[in-house]
Each structure stands twice: as structure tokens, then as C-alpha cells.
């Protein structure tokens, strides 16, 4: 079995931003609630005719490939793990991204776990790399689901933090001669759990086969995200979210030969500030061992690399020898974690 190394990563966010004050003005939610409770000082948003999912994925991928000193022509696999809301429907962003990058010898496919996508994409791809099925892989994820948020719909208020952007990682096995020399981190083990009772709690009412798009569905505003029973979801999620976050974190750490006392940095899905602080304290890292994404908001499966990249840029990222945890949750509901041993 081969060791797997993260040899490069990159991010991209659009230039245009929306502040917490602007979100408050648009939604009617008090500014202090948006900024302090929801944890959004500002977030990046896409112009209508630019920065589509594939564009942002290519930009992040080019940065990751440069960071890894990896030629796209050497890739064996391109995997897209971002939003299903992309340039076109029933369409492979992965194939288009691979073509635009010049990854001519790679096969491309997609993996959907919504906001839990990054740890799960790393898990699946690392398994392929360990067995020798592939040697070099590029993982990309992008989101502009902010487009799907209706700020007049109070039921969807927990999605007012949605922002836009992309991330990419390059994973290589030690079958590549210099992979270990270029390694930013060694990829270890993962864990995940799904509670399907939440599967229908967050939906876009129209646009699928159950309710195809029509002039009426557009006129009725049924093409934005909705939470049909927000209070029920909030109550049920409150009972299981923390235990499931901690379970997948502990299981991934244990499988990797670690426990919470070894943990140094957690790259975590953006969530309300109080829960982020409570969860990182429970994991034993606190504010110094995480980066709160209040300058980005929630960018679906790009959050983990955005948090890692922002921390590294600020000089607050992990040091060589540190244990890093990618920790995420996505509606459906799936909680997922992957452990990395940082090399710097």
C-alpha cells in the first residue's frame, strides 16, 4: 500500500463582496445577528455572467497545480466535489475542468456530498492512490449557491451565510518518485456518518423531475432553496449535530493512530460563531487551532481549504509535525472527517 501526500492546494474567490451590513439590510435580520451570531463580516459573490463553477474550479486548480509543481498532463484523475448548481444541469464540470487545464491523460468524474464533500472526496481518492489505481489526482470544488438564497424567506435564514468561491488539492502517492519530497501533508484516515432523516429538510422545490421548471414555478419563486419546516429541522439537528461531529472526528483520529490530545488544527465548515467556538474547544484546539471564515461565509465544500489557506497566509497555520483535521457537515445530513499529518 502506498502513502498518500497532499502536495499542493489553491483557492479562488470572486472580487465582488457583500458585507454583513448589506445582508442585514436585504434580509431584515439585525446586523449584529448577521455579523456576530451568523459570523459573516463579508462574503464573496459572483456576477451573473462570470465566475461560474467551472471558471472558479479552473482558477483554484491552476493555483494548486503550481503549488504542487505538477503538470496537468501528468494527472491520472480529476474529481469535482463542489456544488450541483453549476454552469449547466445534467453536466460534468469535472470533464470540462480537465479539458481546460490540459489534463489530457486523466479521467474525470464527480462526487456529491454537498458541504461534507471535501473530506469524503479526499477519502475516496486516497483509497485509489493507496492501491495504485491512480498516482496523481486533482480534487476541485466550487460553489455559487448564494444565487439560490432568497433573503425574503425567513425559513432559509441559516443559508444567509452562503458565499462563492472554489478550492483545489493535488494528491499524489509515493509511487511518484518525488511526491514525499514535495509533500505539504500526509493523508491519513477518514470517517463519516449519515442521518437520512434530514434528507428532505433542505430542498429547491422546483427544477427536478418531481416538479419540472415551468413559467409558473419561476413566477412563484420555487427555484430558490427552502427549509419547509425550519423549527423541526433545528430541533432535530440540535440533538445530533455535536455528537456526530465529535464521533467522526474521534473515529478518523483513532484510525490514524491519534486522539484529540494530538490534534493541532481543525479546518471546519463555516457555521454560527458560537457553535464553531464550542466545537473547537471540545476538540481541544480552541481559537488558535482553527480559522473562522467570517471573511468568506460558507462556501460549501471549499471551506476546509479556504480555512487552511487563510491560516497559512496569516502565519497561523499548522507547523511541521502537526495533526490537521478536515471536518465538515452537509445537508442530507452527512458528517465527515479526514486526518492529515502536516509536513509544511
From TrEMBL:
Name of the protein: 3-oxoacyl-[acyl-carrier-protein] synthase-3
Native source organism of the sequence: Halogeometricum rufum
Listed transmembrane segments: none
UniProt cross-references to InterPro entries, sorted A to Z: ACP_syn_III_C (IPR013747), ACP_syn_III_N (IPR013751), Thiolase-like (IPR016039)
Assigned keywords, A-Z: Acyltransferase, Isoprene biosynthesis, Transferase
A UniProt-annotated Pfam family: ACP_syn_III
Organism placement in taxonomy: Archaea, Methanobacteriati, Methanobacteriota, Stenosarchaea group, Halobacteria
Domain Beta-ketoacyl-[acyl-carrier-protein] synthase III N-terminal: 113-177
NCBIfam families referenced in this protein's UniProt entry, alphabetically: PRK06840.1
BP terms from Gene Ontology: fatty acid biosynthetic process; isoprenoid biosynthetic process; secondary metabolite biosynthetic process
Residues of the Beta-ketoacyl-[acyl-carrier-protein] synthase III C-terminal domain: 253-342
Source superkingdom: Archaea
Annotated SUPFAM superfamilies: Thiolase-like (SSF53901)
GO molecular function, one term: 3-oxoacyl-[acyl-carrier-protein] synthase activity
Amino acid at each position: 500500500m502506498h502513502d498518500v501526500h497532499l502536495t499542493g492546494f489553491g483557492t479562488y474567490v470572486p472580487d465582488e463582496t457583500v458585507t454583513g451590513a448589506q445582508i442585514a439590510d436585504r434580509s431584515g435580520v439585525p446586523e449584529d445577528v448577521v455579523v456576530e451570531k451568523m459570523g459573516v463580516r463579508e462574503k464573496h459573490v459572483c456576477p451573473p455572467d462570470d465566475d461560474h463553477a467551472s471558471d472558479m474550479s479552473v482558477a483554484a486548480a491552476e493555483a494548486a497545480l503550481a503549488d504542487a509543481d505538477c503538470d496537468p498532463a501528468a494527472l491520472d484523475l480529476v474529481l469535482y466535489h463542489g456544488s450541483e448548481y453549476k454552469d449547466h444541469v445534467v453536466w460534468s464540470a469535472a470533464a470540462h475542468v480537465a479539458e481546460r487545464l490540459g489534463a489530457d491523460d486523466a479521467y474525470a468524474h464527480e462526487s456529491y456530498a454537498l458541504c461534507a464533500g471535501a473530506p469524503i472526496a479526499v477519502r475516496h481518492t486516497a483509497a485509489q492512490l493507496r492501491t495504485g489505481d491512480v498516482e496523481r489526482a486533482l480534487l476541485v470544488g466550487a460553489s455559487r449557491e448564494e444565487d439560490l438564497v432568497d433573503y425574503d424567506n425567513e425559513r432559509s435564514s441559516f443559508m444567509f451565510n452562503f458565499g462563492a468561491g472554489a478550492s483545489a488539492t493535488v494528491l499524489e502517492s509515493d509511487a511518484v518518485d518525488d511526491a514525499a519530497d514535495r509533500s505539504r501533508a500526509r493523508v491519513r484516515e477518514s470517517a463519516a456518518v449519515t442521518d437520512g432523516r434530514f434528507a428532505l429538510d433542505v430542498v429547491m422545490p422546483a427544477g427536478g423531475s418531481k416538479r419540472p421548471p415551468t413559467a409558473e414555478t419561476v413566477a412563484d419563486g420555487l427555484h430558490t432553496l427552502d427549509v419547509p419546516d425550519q423549527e423541526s429541522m433545528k430541533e432535530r439537528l440540535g440533538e445530533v449535530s455535536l455528537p456526530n461531529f465529535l464521533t467522526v472526528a474521534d473515529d478518523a483520529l483513532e484510525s490514524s493512530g491519534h486522539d484529540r490530545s494530538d490534534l493541532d488544527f481543525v479546518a471546519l465548515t463555516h457555521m454560527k460563531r458560537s457553535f464553531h467556538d464550542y466545537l473547537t474547544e471540545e476538540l481541544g484546539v480552541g481559537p488558535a487551532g482553527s480559522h473562522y471564515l467570517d471573511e468568506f461565509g460558507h462556501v460549501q465544500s471549499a471551506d476546509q481549504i479556504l480555512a487552511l489557506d487563510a491560516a497559512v497566509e496569516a502565519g497561523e497555520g499548522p507547523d511541521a509535525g502537526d495533526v490537521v483535521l478536515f471536518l465538515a457537515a452537509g445537508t442530507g445530513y452527512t458528517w465527515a472527517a479526514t486526518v492529515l499529518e502536516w509536513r509544511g
